[in-house]
Write a structure and sequence with these properties.
single chain, 120 residues, mainly beta, OB fold (Dihydrolipoamide Acetyltransferase, E2P), 5-stranded mixed barrel, 5 strands, elongated
Length: 120
């Protein structure tokens, strides 16, 4: 499971941990946009909703965006859960990661496999 590994306390102090609201979600590359204090930022999803996630080249955890989807309709239309999320943002805005929900834990949504009718 990917982790956020800070170099030292100075590295930790370069980040802010803020509350935000998801605006858009992209399950193809596990990215999103998140609004924090009236400003919308592009971000990566870094939410540990599955024990099998691997780190993508863009810094997101593979499949993490599914932790911000509630149902099939939302997945199909790429609508994020509008719950408040925790955002880890570097003070120079070079790194923005959505790392979880403020007050709930949600499992990753799994898209159901649609079984085609049997042909006779």
């Amino acid at each position: 499971m990917p982790t956020i590994d800070f170099i030292d306390i100075g590295d930790v102090l370069n980040y802010e941990f803020l509350q935000g609201t998801l605006k858009t979600i992209n399950t193809d590359d596990d990215t999103c946009t998140v609004e924090v204090n009236g400003t919308t930022y592009p971000a990566v999803c870094f939410y540990h909703c599955s024990a099998a996630g691997t780190l993508r080249t863009n810094g997101a955890i593979e499949g993490a965006a599914m932790g911000f989807i509630k149902n099939y309709h939302d997945w199909y239309y790429k609508i994020p859960a509008t719950d408040k999320v925790i955002v880890m943002k570097k003070k120079d805005d070079s790194v923005v990661k959505v790392i979880g929900y403020v007050d709930i834990i949600r499992k990753c949504y799994v898209v159901p496999t649609i079984t085609p009718p049997i042909q006779e």
